[in-house]
Amino acid sequence: MAVLVAVIVLVVVVVITGMGIVTSLGAGKDENWSKLTAGQSGIRTITRFPTDGLKTRIAGCVDFVAAEPFSAPLLSEKLAELAVDEAIVQSGIGSPGRFPGPLFLGVAPVEIEWPQRVELAAAAGANGNATYDDMLRAAATGRFKAHHERFQFASVADHLAARFGTQGMPISLSTACATGASAIQLGVEAIRRGETDAALCVGTDGSVNTESLVRFQLLSALTTANDPPEEAAKPFSKNRDGFVMAEGAGALVLESYESAKARGAKILGVVEGCGELSDSFHRTRTSPDGKPIIGCMNQAIADAGLTIADIDYINAHGTSTPENDKMECLGVTAVFGERAGQVPMSSNKSMVGHTLSAAGAVEAVFTALTLSSQRIPPTINYQIPDPAIPLDVVPNVARDAKLSHALSNSFGFGGQNVTLVMGLEPA
């Protein structure tokens, strides 16, 4: 006798109940959104350190947040704290100092920077011939111990977890420019698996320093259009010549729909789908056929249970490098076919710069705000169209639109790619 077994698959809807953001435009959603939709730029001439001899002398620095003595991990932590504070207050979740879920933190790879290496080398002695091991030993003792701990990869997550009382072991991750989006994907997956009802997902980066600037210059990745700074980032324009380094942080409080409704939380949006695909084609370039870009967009749309006809807007990765913008156009064209030129797509990086490890989270916040406000921020500095990129990039001026679902693309070095699908509260 045949036995029929009915399998009921419960789809866990993951919603956003709190958001926080800090960029070169300012601190908080209100200031960032008003300036972003007004087409203002936060990119300025660097004043934090001397730029003599550097080809690039501009960045989207967050100089209004003090991190003295300056270090990338310390600034990254302070930026994250501001974003998380805003997100948790908006969500109204938990109790002060106790977040009822895990922390997923996207943060830049951390190592001891050159100013601190010089200091440690002097402390290590060895007549000026200190090895890295000598410096590590010096860093583990006396007044250098706390300083050394600051430069450990997991230190930012540990400090955030202690301050906000997140549950379980905090997760730090780094997937290049897709890092912030990867943190959100991990939170979505944890909630979907039923491991938690809530997750705190953060991307942060405070890496604008001499060493980082030189490294990206050596890769020929940065613009050299220093004057005027606010016109340097030109995504999708024919005369684009590289990205602008920037700092910032984005934080999202994610919850299951059932949990959020049960506690009466206001739902700000839905993370409907996630797609991830990578390749090993090159350390900085993506595969010429665009396969990983195409694949992660298709995966995200399928994961959301949607089709290309449902997507109303694309928050582009849009770095303003010749290679990235060309490949993103190839990917969008391959995925959307005849609709490619009809779906509006804009790049926030034209105004805030490229926040690197924070970019995926920062742009997820902007994508959610785009949906909730029904207003698309522009791609500024679009004066010379590139005929090889025949897409609607929402040039220079924000646009009102009817929006239900949006993609947020994050494509990183090493072929690390993540696409998020975001939408409005389910009916």
From TrEMBL:
Residues forming coiled coils: none
Residue ranges of domain Ketosynthase family 3 (KS3) in the record: 11-424
UniProt keywords, alphabetically: Transferase
GO cellular component term of the entry, any: cytosol
Pathway noted in the entry: Lipid metabolism; fatty acid biosynthesis
A Gene Ontology BP annotation from the UniProt entry: fatty acid biosynthetic process
Presence of keyword Transferase: yes
GO molecular function, one term: 3-oxoacyl-[acyl-carrier-protein] synthase activity
Record bears the keyword Transferase: yes
Top-level taxon: Bacteria
Similarity-based family: Belongs to the thiolase-like superfamily. Beta-ketoacyl-ACP synthases family.
Protein name per the record: Beta-ketoacyl-ACP synthase II
Lineage: Bacteria, Pseudomonadati, Pseudomonadota, Alphaproteobacteria, Hyphomicrobiales
